[in-house]
Amino acid sequence: MVKAEDFLFRGLDKMGNTTNAVGSNVTAVNVNQLPGLNTFGISMVRIDYAPWGQNAPHTHPRATEILVVIEGSLLVGFVTSNPDNKLFTKRLEKGDVFVFPEGLIHFQQNVGKGYALAIAALSSQNPGVITIANAVFGSNPDISDDILARAFQVDKKVIDEIQSKF
Amino acid sequence: MVKAEDFLFRGLDKMGNTTNAVGSNVTAVNVNQLPGLNTFGISMVRIDYAPWGQNAPHTHPRATEILVVIEGSLLVGFVTSNPDNKLFTKRLEKGDVFVFPEGLIHFQQNVGKGYALAIAALSSQNPGVITIANAVFGSNPDISDDILARAFQVDKKVIDEIQSKF
Amino acid sequence: MVKAEDFLFRGLDKMGNTTNAVGSNVTAVNVNQLPGLNTFGISMVRIDYAPWGQNAPHTHPRATEILVVIEGSLLVGFVTSNPDNKLFTKRLEKGDVFVFPEGLIHFQQNVGKGYALAIAALSSQNPGVITIANAVFGSNPDISDDILARAFQVDKKVIDEIQSKF
Amino acid sequence: MVKAEDFLFRGLDKMGNTTNAVGSNVTAVNVNQLPGLNTFGISMVRIDYAPWGQNAPHTHPRATEILVVIEGSLLVGFVTSNPDNKLFTKRLEKGDVFVFPEGLIHFQQNVGKGYALAIAALSSQNPGVITIANAVFGSNPDISDDILARAFQVDKKVIDEIQSKF
Amino acid sequence: MVKAEDFLFRGLDKMGNTTNAVGSNVTAVNVNQLPGLNTFGISMVRIDYAPWGQNAPHTHPRATEILVVIEGSLLVGFVTSNPDNKLFTKRLEKGDVFVFPEGLIHFQQNVGKGYALAIAALSSQNPGVITIANAVFGSNPDISDDILARAFQVDKKVIDEIQSKF
Amino acid sequence: MVKAEDFLFRGLDKMGNTTNAVGSNVTAVNVNQLPGLNTFGISMVRIDYAPWGQNAPHTHPRATEILVVIEGSLLVGFVTSNPDNKLFTKRLEKGDVFVFPEGLIHFQQNVGKGYALAIAALSSQNPGVITIANAVFGSNPDISDDILARAFQVDKKVIDEIQSKF
């Protein structure tokens, strides 16, 4: 039996806890939190940024993202695919809207003086998030440092150092 | 040549002019305003509501909508399809998120004391908007009052009266 | 176990009962009546029209419709979305085919002397039907006359009168 | 500039010429005849059958078909894919509706005394038709009889005989 | 619980048994063999060909195919839909890649001296295979020879002869 | 005018040049090389691996990949999305098939004694490739080391070192 509650999620006005390594917090409202989104191809997130906090480079494997700045100033960017790997960046102020195309690596950094806040929507009810640092250097179990040392063309001990942080 | 500007829209922080018959204003950011959205199946709108203003009953022919209240209190609702025509409503406060399923007739009404503001996203880069009153009673040219009188089971002069407003 | 019966529906030759307020009747053959349609993105309807009967303004939230006149003469029309709200109409005779684009408000009216009959197909196995008058003025429970009076820019008593019919 | 004519096709009431080898005729109304169908995923056909005529085994590479008998009696069937190759058949009378799943080989045969008529809809604006006999034995140029003799496990002269008819 | 085994299929290096009427063998790796493919819209096959063996004319009702020759020489072809029924053919050598568009009838024949091997991928996790000879002349139960004789414009005894082989 | 050449690509038997930093080479056959793939949702690649070479961690923003080992032994893996970041790995031998789900970070490493060869197919005619190291540390222009130092939780000089390699 369908009911109005299935279409309602309360509390996106609550600031997330940004006391963490990257200084940001994402509150997701997708099909896991809001069952009424099922099959509808859309979801929403709130992103809080401490001063100089960032939403670290990540991808959404199944969605494009459209983001609007509610408070503060953000430097945003995404990188195109091979062979160009071109970086597109913009400084966004309150009320600016930006698009991160499906599957591309992107990030936001708070470049204002205070806290920043953005609302974003994603073109899937289950978009997924792959934070590059966590997936590459913090997987369970670890990807072998042998593979990563060659992939990133650094010494294994550099890889080990990064892996120790995740 | 793709460039960062294609993915940027500025100015969604500007309050829309709600001095109109229904007391609301929608600022759209879809593929017409933001070409970088092309093929990506998502878009965004800002909705301003004067006190007791409403976003009158309407449908999006090609999109589901997810809405978050940024300021104020809204009564929101949608009606299911035949044969039930069941009305689902909720009173939303700041931070509440609601879903309007694809193609269904829905509305929002400002039920707080001051202005209200919502941000919504739609699951199409070109969702379309059909405001029921405008499409049914204000089309160009008019649908004949003969048809509408029977459809709405009222006298033609009632239809003529409504049509005269649109 | 799939069987031939899953792909068969009998009886679309039976004229529907058009003794009702609008003088028309729709017999649907979608996934609810014909399980073999599941996932296939198509369905069919038979529409009967008493003399001067109409299939009142409605939308299909998930489908485009293609209609062919089997008997009689129909005035058909649809209205485009905002901001144009342009009404497209044609008078159809036996053998004429017309398209109603996905999600747009459309209608047919019998403008011949006798009964009329159309067969239509829809681009979904579960297209849905939203009859505007029923959804807006006959929902369960009612949309408040406060909201509708402002949306349609008439007095509440006009709204109440229409609501009393549905 | 979109106009009402783009959504209109006239003349599907005209009986097709069934004086041909198989005794049937298909009149198509797809995006080639009716440009308003573009991107909408639906189209329509009229099928006429002379007494004992057939719409010979064929597939639609991009569509499911739903068919209703308007006049007469039809034996209809489709064959499932490997490894079962199961034949599903039904005798249809006026008003019966049947589904031919996407891409499967199917056929109709007039098994009544007079002419028969069906209207069918397809889940693509450009469904395509592959008549098995024509594609396999009447392609331009011919598929070599060497290949077909082995595929159908008969002598090349049998293949040559069939190829000579197409 | 998702596990790595769901994404693994072993043994596509094994040559299939080509000792059969057409001299070829298809080893399929689709969602039936490899559950991790579910919803992902892709699958793979290995095709072995004895000298002068063929993968007889067939269609995939839900997929386009891309094929690469690993060993040997193949004559490949597909036939376009009505009304052209145009045959496109190419002789492929090791390393050549060819595309068979969705739903079209196509075939491959080993035209080299030894065994041939191809790997192909299909744009569905459940593409289906309809071998024309088997579906038309070897269905269970048989399509009546009455229908097939007229469809292929030969004597019923020719049909009966072909049917006796399947 | 469609012609057979549009569906043909020659030369996937040629070993790619693996004399590079990661010891692997990808030869792509997508819609850029093979126009007949347009709209068909599939493409193919050949991947060569020098001894101990790797196809470094990367994603395809618009495709799932299915890979078969033609020669050699590969260690393959992919990492699930947040919050689990679970690493799935398997050692593949000749004839083994593996699936890399859409948008997830994955890699292959040659763990045999000689060269290795794989053929893979992707569920898009234009899947895209994002090599993590190149996109994150080798974009044009660079992502600021400020952002990356915090994202990867290492000193800027470590970031600078990695960036200097790309």
Automatic annotation (TrEMBL), chains A, B, C, D, E, F:
Annotated localization: Secreted, Extracellular space, Apoplast
InterPro entries on file: Cupin_1 (IPR006045), Germin (IPR001929), Germin_Mn-BS (IPR019780), RmlC-like_jellyroll (IPR014710), RmlC_Cupin_sf (IPR011051)
GO cellular component entries: apoplast
One MF term in the entry's GO annotations: manganese ion binding
Binding locations of Mn(2+): 58, 60, 65, 106
Cupin type-1 domain segment(s): 10-160
Name of this protein: Germin-like protein
Organism of derivation: Artemisia annua (Sweet wormwood)
